[in-house]
Amino acid sequence: MIDLNKKFLALGLGLLLFGILAKSAIIGGTCSSQSVQCGLQVNKILVYNDSARAQAFFPHSNGPAADWVKVLPETLTLSAGETGVFEVYTIATCYADPGRYFAGISITNGSTENISCTIDIEQGHFVGISIIPQQKTITQCMPAAYNIELDNQTIVPKQEKELVNLEVVGLPKEWYSLEASQLIVEKGKKETVKLTAFPPCDADLGDYDFLVKASLFNPNFVSTGSAALSITQGQGIQIKPTDAGFENFGKPFLACTEKENQYTFEIQNNGAQGDTLELSLMDAPAFAKLSETLIEIAAGEKTTVKLVLEKNSSDLKQYNIVLTAKSKKFVFEKSISFEAENRDCFDVTVQKLSGEENVCSEEKPVYKFQLKNGRETPISLQARVFGLPADLSVENFSLNPGETKELTATLDASAEGTPGSVKAKDVFVELVLDTSGSMDLPIGGRKKIEIAKGTVSYFVNNISPINLGLMVFGQSEQCSEPTTLVPLSRLDVTNVESKINSFRAIGDTPLAKSLENASKEFAPGKENYVILVSDGKESCNGGIDSAIGLLVNNGVKVYAIGFDIDTSGKKQLENIAQKTSGRYFDASNAQELVQVFGAITKELEIELPKESQKTFTLKLDSDYFSFEKDYTVNISECYNVVLSVPNISVCRQVQSQNSFTVANLGSKTQALSVKVSPSWASTLQEITIEPAKEKTFPIALSPKKDSSENALTITAKSGKVNVFDSGGILYLNDSACYGFGIVVEKEFEGRIGEGERRKIAFSNNGQAEMEISISSSQPWVYFEPQQVLVQKGGTGFVNYYITPPFDFLGETKEVLLTASNNFGLSLEKKLTLNVTGPWFGLVPANVSVKTQAANTQTENGENTLIVEFELKNESPQEIEINSIEAKGISATFGIESKKLAQGETTKVSMKTNIKDGEAVAAGGGAMKQELSIDTSEGMLSRTLEFEVAKGTTTEPAKEDGTETGLTGLLSFSNAQTILGLILIVIVGGLLIYHVISSGSGGKEGDESKAAEKKEVKAAEKLPKKSGAKKTFKAKKAKNSRTRE
Fold it and tell me: In the prediction, which pLDDT does 921 show?
């Protein structure tokens, strides 16, 4: 017994020791948290190892929200008695629903300690929404616009953007559109989305309250804005179907061959008064009827009418039916259209799975169909295709109830042509084109004549083989005869295109003559048409009414196209079209011209469609029924490209630009590689053109000095297209390359004493930039600037100033202007100047001439003409005579006084050798001499008239014994002559004496000075009329001595 107790005691002590060694304790901390979504919370848990040995502790998260809790470190080893820390990281997902969540943490080290965690999540995602305006009133068929304003008010950390989804509740989806149904809204910013409501025309009148919900990534996070839409009276009657599935005519009403079907229409009177309505069906098959045809309906009242589709044996097809409610009291009716499909309601269904409607004639399109037996018994079927050759994947097969089968039909479209739509009887069309000078003007960077050529090329390539002629007018600079390029005959596209490039735009517009000639091309009794393209009206005095009469008599209708035409020209073309029972069209650019030709082509039924529309029929035959379904395919040429290269005019060594046109008449987009010759021409190497499009591409031209090629050729290629075209090359002469024009007034008035500014315009008619300089034949015409740089095709201006001399009053003067450019070409223009009186009270200088005497005398064997005359200052101001010149002869003039006061006169003598002046004085009699008098007020021109007796010789005229001659002639009175001779002898003696005996000249010098003083005194004794005369005499004496 004692031994047994000892054993139990030893066992208890062992167990106690084991418990002491294994025990641990959690002494503090929590894992609970509170935050918004995406908010991180960190808690700490203290672990104390109170065992007698080192322990490893392992944390684990658990519970519904365990994924949000992370404990670190993953292992914590503590020595005996050591305390350690676990960090608990708690973060909820960014779009978790707000609320309280639970998790737990288990810490194990052989035993397990559990901690409960409470996680409270608060809402952090907020988006504000408002709708402006909150109420909108419209009538039926009218839209209403609202602005939805969104404001990101989130408080979630680091959540700067919210993805917002918008949803409209309360309005049918087909009633509205949202500018965006999903968008990103940045924190602190507002975004606006436009909501447009457009209720259908048959919408019920009234108020529609609706909501706009703005939901976030978590669809439970929703903000709502409210608004209202009011639809007021817009029409009197509303008709709509009420049967489920047929609202808003979502699908056709079904008529069955086996049974009768009925559908209900609700009719509402939205008017202000009661009405009696008469109901009817239009375009309806015989099996479609209404239950009532006359109803009484009060204002605002609704009633119903039945549409009865009876059991029938009519064609299985779809019918377009119109239901009309017509008021018996008011002038008002309301119609709605709907579709009713008559079919075997218990038949096999056929669904097309694949197959293009638009195919190329070079390809074999594949159509796939799914057949389903909707009956309850097996069906044996035979499949066939009619309308186009086809290979079927299977022809005879069976379908069990509910079974589906795929059927493939491979069509062969290669045998299908593209015939035109021309009528059985022949059509005769004469193209009459205006090629007058105005057609050379550009539109949108291209000349009108080039646009017309390209359009005609497009036209003849897209019509049936009719009878067609081509006539042009305006092929010379005068009103010449129109030119028939292609006689009216069966269409030859190649011939027409070759003729198109042969004409240019240079002449006038003989429109009437062209129509007269065109009318003679037609035979009566046919469908005869003239297609006239012009940008102007008759300019050659032709009889339009007479031409119209000829056209009407021959049954010719005129389709007139005004191409970039003015109002008067348009009226004339409209008159021609109207009186010939044709039509008038406007075209202001290349695209519109092509469209007009297309419209005419359709109206005349001569189009050559690039798409041949064919219908093939899939037919299924069985013992119980026969099924047929038609399918339409558009078979077209996919690779039809037309290239048009113009004739070009170039200047050697001058760069220029032109263009060519490519028209894609096929149904496939074409990517073409382009090559051009000669080598000095270049263009794009690769071009792309869409179906049924025409594009113009640039050509850069840089001909060399020795270039001589006569054709510009462009080739365009792709995998299935290879086209080319050529245009002629014309090398222009120097005048065409570098020519220019001058535009200036030919006649104008100019006022004396005034400088008048006018303009000269220079037009660069050449092909290169040029510098033009200008000069004048008159010195009183000058230019600013003297030179001007004018771009190709541009215009430059030079100001020129005219200041007519005072003595030109009342005269007409010619001015010759000479302009030359830096290429060596010159032009002259003559201007006529009519000189008028002064301006602002200025009075020109005026000096009159009065002849006193005219004689001839002989001295030392030479004959001299001496003419004495007076000059009188008839100006209101003092003038000074600077000099006088005789025009055409050599003459000297002696002037008594140069300064003349108002009304004062002075004497003048003119001397000239008879030989020099024989053109004036030969033979004696009445003579005239033109004088140029240079005065302080300007240059004056006067005519000196005098008479000379033939062979007379007289002494020169004198005044107080003193000769008045000057300027190169020595002529004195007798005393002066003797005194001069004495002085010459004395001076000569003194010189001889000086040579013989040097130093002995003092006495002779004194005598010489005495003689000089004597001469001066003699000059001072002459009569004095003015201070100016005294000064003149003194200068004269001094000059005389100098000459001696």
Answer: 40
